[in-house]
Amino acid sequence: MTTMTRAQALAELKRIHRMDGHADARSAAIELGDSSEDPLVRALARSEELMRSRRLGEQQRVIVAAAELLPVIDELQPPRESAERDALENVLSALWSAVYSGLDVPEVPFAAIDPLLDAYERILQLLGLKDLSARRIRAHRAFVAGEQEELAAIIESLMPHVNYTNGHYQALGCPGCVLSTVVWHLGPTADLALLEELLTPLFEGHFNFPNEDPAYIRRLRNAGTRCDSVLNAHMHYARALMWQGRTDDAIPHIVKARGQKDESLCYLLPAIFRLEAAMATGTHEEIRAEIRRLRPRVEEHEDAQEAMLGSLRVAQALALLGEDPEDQAHLWAVADNHARRLDARLARPRHRAEVAQERAEGPPFLERAPT
User: Fold this and answer.
1) Domain boundary residue among 129, 162, 182?
2) Which residues, other chains included, contact 284 with Cβ-Cβ below 8 Å and sequence gap of 6+?
3) Alpha-carbon distance 241 to 234, whole Å?
4) Which residue, 285, 294, 365, is CA-closest to 334?
5) Range of the domain at 328
6) Helix 304-321 × helix 269-281 angle, to 10°
7) Band (266; pLDDT cuts 50, 70, 90)
8) How many whole angstroms separate alpha carbon 217 and alpha carbon 230?
9) Gap between the Cα atoms of 239 and 71, Å rounded
10) How far is residue 235's CA from residue 142's CA, in Å, rounded to a whole number?
11) Which position has the higher pLDDT, 312 or 265?
12) How many CA atoms lie within 13 A of 274 on its CB side?
């Protein structure tokens, strides 16, 4: 066991948190956590392992680490000083990632994910925070589970609280983060007038969302703010415009959305979107370029829903080009396999039907043949 004090161990974990190499940082955190009897140190070390595994795209390892984290949560106490509060906030972030990883992998039952959500709410209570960010995660759970009425109710309860103030003081996430997720959950067939109402303040850089703290907003205006999730919002709005036959109107949003960095191993949708945009507005060469970027990733990707969508979209792009029918058939089989996995967890299976519809009818956003 380590002879470090709590303060020393937390400082060492803070140093590990700043390390660049994910695998090395993960190993260092595991070693320190295993050598400590302090529940906060063990929880923070396991959280570091979890977060590094997610950044490496190793969703199933995230789930294992989260299961090992859960028993420690009950031993944690409210923070007495800033270092302890920082540690609990990092544990909170790790539990957020753990829930999302569990939802990405359909073999993980919802009954195994819900205790992580309960643990997340316990950390919020220890930190003296409201349950707003927990509602945001529960909305995503409802989205994945296909529980549309539950999703709508959670979104309705959350919307009055979406502002910069709660993003900062209540760990909710800024309006860019929250609204881009809401639009994602509403889907590309959502009412365009509603999406425009939600997103226009975001696109125009407004600061005064409902129920803001004026003093905080003054500080924010002086410091400035930038949220990459605004680019996500452009992506989701562009997809909705494309799906609903307004591809020309989507082009400015496509251009903005292409500014997203595609570096996350656990988030494939930006790469899928770039292929969709090329299919709708680009040339054959642009489509081929996006296929080359996306094709190597779809079969290894651990988020089954994104892997399903990426596989069928590459198959459709190849069909559009009239190329590689053998790989088309293989990719449709991959998409169907992911759909089977996804449907096995649902009370009302829907994914295999979606794949069959896409195969029969083609891309729902395609209006013209590329040149």
Assistant:
1) 129
2) 321, 370, 371
3) 10
4) 294
5) 261-361
6) 20
7) low
8) 18
9) 42
10) 22
11) 312
12) 20
| % of the chain residues with pLDDT over 90 | 83
Distance CA(10)–CA(32), nearest Å, equals: 10
- Structural domain count, the chain: 2
Quick one: average pLDDT of 94-101? Answer: 94
The two three-digit tokens of residue 128, written as one number: 């003296």
Confidence of residue 224 (pLDDT cuts 50, 70, 90): low
Do the domain assignments include residue 204? no
Question: Distance (Å, rounded) from C-alpha 244 to C-alpha 266?
Answer: 28
- Sign of the alpha-carbon dihedral angle for 73, 77, 81, 85: positive
- Evaluate whether 126 touches 104 at the Cβ level (below 8 Å): no
Report the amino acid identity of residue 116. Answer: L
Q: Which of 102, 129, 156 is the last residue in one of the domains? A: 129
Query: Can you tell me whether residue 36 is helix, strand or coil?
Result: coil
Residue count (the chain): 371
Provide the pLDDT for residue 226: 67
The pTM of the full predicted model, rounded to 2 decimals, is 0.90
pLDDT at 162 over 90: yes
CA distance 109 to 284: 42
CATH at residue 37: 1.25.40
Tell me how many helices (H) and strands (E) the chain has.
19, 0
